[in-house]
């Protein structure tokens, strides 16, 4: 490393500095992009990466997940994290790619709703362990066939390749995967962004999983399985013609086994049937019997233009697996215990790239909704603040709150219209789960969802729909409270005012007080309350117009009716 | 692509799905991580990537930048972006890496304050162009030696390798680089997050650059160079011993040319002299004459432990190039025209990883500070809202506001303590520039800075320091306004109240009014004002204590005194 030169550099001199770097080196220098910096955040992210891998593996293998997380304190800011699952296990060949190579894995290229999707997370943890402690991560994994294996794994960052050591068979009965890794520069606490809260929220969104946490102080916390049926497995799906771009079509065409463009389109795309094909044929300048490998960019453009015009049926929703209205209702009622709860599951939609997604929203009001801030108000009640619980494919999102589409959608709503005057300080918990075959995260750290237009729109519609239902309840409650508060306030000051007026006017205090009470009760209270009621009622009416279309309530997983004209039935 | 199976998958079956992917494929699927999604955002990011490359190249070659950006509308949501600079140019060998390969370039491995630092941005634009239009990006570049060359470039995403076509020499005199690329799915608007505002802010932070924008409607906007001296070039620096971790030390030791650990440490680290070496030797279990390539992880740990203990002099600041208090003051005064302006440049500090950084903050209050929201208030004045202008190494940050350390630092301040009661709606512009040899961005899109503890602390100290100075001004102004408003308010209602009291008390209205006026002027006004003044004064005193240490005002680029005990002088 030179000490730097202050001479002006020529193109040739600058050229000497050109170097190439591996993706592992890039993320090693930018651990913050993986959510692996910050003493508390890093520890939560580690737990998140291992646990989501376990849940995904169990789901794919149709196993009811039983996951144990143990965090041991080895020294100051020095911890060992062990995550053990009862999943399908890893083979000798796959363990290196799963834990010792970035951008390798099963998830990146599949159109399937999974928690992980990048093939970066767990390998990033392996790297973090080795750069903070110099130690390898230990793995024991058994697939049910043959003996389980144990091994130690690190990454060579310059090559982005796994290094496996001490590979051995062990003579025990074990099916599943156990990862044990050490990390320095961490801190285990009990806060809103810490492992315990992360696992609590994971349990809320995954009632079929049994999750155990053993804390550094040996305390064992078990989130019991409350539902014994394995959720239907998400399906790997084909891209929907809406939202596919020319480059993607062009790339798919080069690798297809179809002999004609028409059969290529039918086999590679969701909702593509004979009617659509003949509609396309009518409007493009070439014969769809053509070899797809011979398609030019311009011809692909013609096809995509037709994709945009045709009213295809909405994307398959049977590939997506929402948590479901009833399960969310049950979870929130049992954990948040609100006075009022409104849950909306929207139907599936699609965002650019042809990725289907779906939004589930719950608004819980009153009771224990919102988060307590340990401040006691004048009425002796603990003040509560609005809380947003964000999930992506059922995995909780705890960080980068401000940058997330869910937060932005919540903030974009004018909550006053729904009768919530001071939204930030209202006893409200907003639950939102976005599911998709590909969540557009803002960063490789998967902490926040990018604000794609279509996703924002669906989130807003769900929030407004849910908000409308809550508004009726809130408005009534608010009116009652206001009436009470106003009366109390005025009556509290009447004696003082009367006393002051007595001085000014030299009239008797008793008479003044009576007159004031009359004034308050008759004039202020009645008139203002009527006005207020009218205003809220007007606002609710106006908001209903706002959403643009009438959304059918309580209708998750229904296929019909998203597009106004369905010209094409897709085949299964 | 299969239609998905709902059979349970075994480890072997899952193993078949394991694949490896290139970093180009990863970002191609996750363009949002590069800031290259969203019609407006993508266009601004494209301009950002090309312009920062131009500014960096000019800076390194000691050239006063003259940059022309032209955006042409080719069709609906279809644009051509051309960026031409007068920089040092690219050679045949480097142009492919600079524009056609991700994670290649001069910036990633150098400890040097540059706008770009990843080797991803411009190559990401090449990829975006080809996947939205199918077209290559055109480049003309001349280095001053021989004829300029022209060529077309695309990326092979599967290999992350450049593909160059139509390479030719051209017989014109041209030194610099011109890139012309086409993009679909964009929208040129004139908003706070659009190219024009981006370039305006770039001009604020780079007064030595001449920047021209030709808008799609052919309108030409020139941000003139206001300062003709080239800013001192940032130096490539060595890592500071504070903040280096064991892994980094271990890696450096493996590649050093030093023969002994002692000479290795002295040549590879900033501020490392003989005194520090002998201090380390006293406290480690091995001889520093040892071959550095033979250092074990545990020995590296011993050394890093000593690094933490020794009070090294603060990192070299001559590698960092703040904009400077006077330049910021001039820029903000000319553009924001505030009533009051307070600018603070903190001294350099270091965050984990051994990266020096420095913070510059300006608070502009009143006048045209803040952003207008087109709402006219009761006094007939346009209401203004608080505005944050964020910069990293002089490049404006327009997106992911909520997730950025600068925003978080601003929000963490209790502005009431500085006399600003309703911060969000105050006429305030907060300017903040973070400079560093490595900005810890939250994502490869470089839109927001990660909230590293040390950076947050410095930002907070700068904001508080700057805020304290503004507070005096604001408090005085506030008191005056409050007095005026209160008086006006009370006097407005006195006739009405007097009338009401006349009814209640049956006394003469004239006398009541006089009594009320007396009451307002004497009791309310005087007492409350005194109380208020006392309160603000107390708060300011308390806040001063808050910052923990007395910061010297107006002292950018001074080396002395950051550490209490300096046991070691670094050598140049």
TrEMBL record, chains A, B:
Pfam families: HATPase_c, Topo-VIb_trans. Keywords: ATP-binding, DNA-binding, Isomerase, Nucleotide-binding, Topoisomerase. The keyword Plastid does not apply. InterPro entries: HATPase_C_sf, HATPase_dom, Ribosomal_Su5_D2-typ_SF, Ribosomal_uS13-like_H2TH, Ribsml_uS5_D2-typ_fold_subgr, TopoVI_B, TopoVI_B_transducer. ATP binds at residues 53, 85, 106-107, 116-123, 446. Gene3D superfamilies: 1.10.8.50, 3.30.230.10, Histidine kinase-like ATPase, C-terminal domain. The keyword Transport does not apply. Its EC number is 5.6.2.2. Residues 38-161 form the Histidine kinase/HSP90-like ATPase domain. It catalyses: ATP-dependent breakage, passage and rejoining of double-stranded DNA. One of its GO terms (biological process) is DNA replication. CDD domains: TopoIIB_Trans. Residues 528-572 are annotated as: Disordered. It is an enzyme of class 5 (isomerase). GO terms for molecular function: ATP binding; DNA binding; DNA topoisomerase type II (double strand cut, ATP-hydrolyzing) activity. Belongs to the TOP6B family. This is Type 2 DNA topoisomerase 6 subunit B. The gene is top6B.
